[in-house]
Amino acid sequence: ATQKRLSLKKWHKMLGELRSMSLALPGARNMFSLMQHALSTRKKTRVALTKGVHQALKDFSWMHKDIVSRPTRIAELVPLLASALGYHDASGEGAGGVWFPHESLSPRGTTTDVLPHQPIVWRYRWPQDIIDSLVTESNPTGTITNSDLELAGGLLHLDAIAQYYDIRERTILSKTDNLATLYWQCKGSAATIKPPAYLLRFFGIHQRFHRYVPRHDYISGVSNPMADDA
């Protein structure tokens, strides 16, 4: 934990090992952003092990210990027909979306405010400090982009269906009209230290905790009115 640098050769070897193992570790593919960023910012043959890199390594240590009490099931790795179809959208004001659950999903026992297998519509207004930090024409020095908010909305979207239905070992399909969000979600990582890296890490933790298989796709903005309204 106190090591501050590593040789490029050893870093390539370790990343290769972790990448190969991530195929059978649900959520692991979302933990590579900061480690990939370390590779892209190397100095000659040395890689800097920053605080964020060590955090990513701790995530893998956590999963290593978690495997003992949490065996990985095949249905967590192999995508099947979607048990829920959802659409989400976000803006500088907030985020929202709609889910259409299949009758094969079981509502959670504590759910009392939604009818079984009826569409779920959700919305959330960003805190004012988030709104004030958005990059716009009138605020060019902001620290948050619209794509960052779209990605955050995608994470809230997954949590909405997880709160109302038991989605363990189920495949769920989420669609967005933001291409940057779709790219990040499908790839699972981004070689950056900006918000997408940390949001994608939460995607991985969320998937591992709720044990579902996430699928992502694109829908044009004009065809996404329900999520846009929310």
What does this protein look like?
Helix 5 (146-164) crosses helix 6 (179-187) and helix 5 (146-164) runs parallel beside helix 7 (195-210). The protein has 8 helices and 9 strands. Strands 6-4-3-8-9 form a 5-stranded mixed beta sheet. The longest helix is centred in the first third of the chain and has 19 residues, at 51-69. The protein has helices spanning 8-22, 33-40, 51-69, 128-132, 146-164, 179-187, 195-210, 225-229, and strands at 5-7, 46-48, 84-90, 94-101, 106-107, 120-125, 165-166, 171-176, 213-218. The chain starts with a strand and ends with a helix. It is α/β, with parallel strands linked by helices.
What can be said about this structure in brief?
This protein is an alpha/beta fold.
Helix-strand layout with pairing:
Layout lengths: L4 E3 H15 L10 H8 L5 E3 L2 H19 L14 E7 L3 E8 L4 E2 L12 E6 L2 H5 L13 H19 E2 L4 E6 L2 H9 L7 H16 L2 E6 L6 H5 L1
Parallel strand pairs: 3-8, 8-9
Antiparallel strand pairs: 1-2, 3-4, 4-6, 5-7
What is the H/E string? EHHEHEEEEHHEEHHEH
Widest beta sheet: strand line-up:
6-4-3-8-9
Low-confidence runs: none
Main sheet summary: 5 strands, mixed
Distance between the termini: 44 Å
Instruction: Please give the count of helices.
Output: 8
Spatial extent as radius of gyration = 19 Å
**Dominant shape:** globular
Helical content stands at 40-55%
Based on DSSP secondary structure assignment, what is the total number of beta strands? 9
Give the rounded overall mean pLDDT.
92
Q: Provide the structure class.
A: alpha/beta
Give the amount of beta strand, in percent: 15-25%
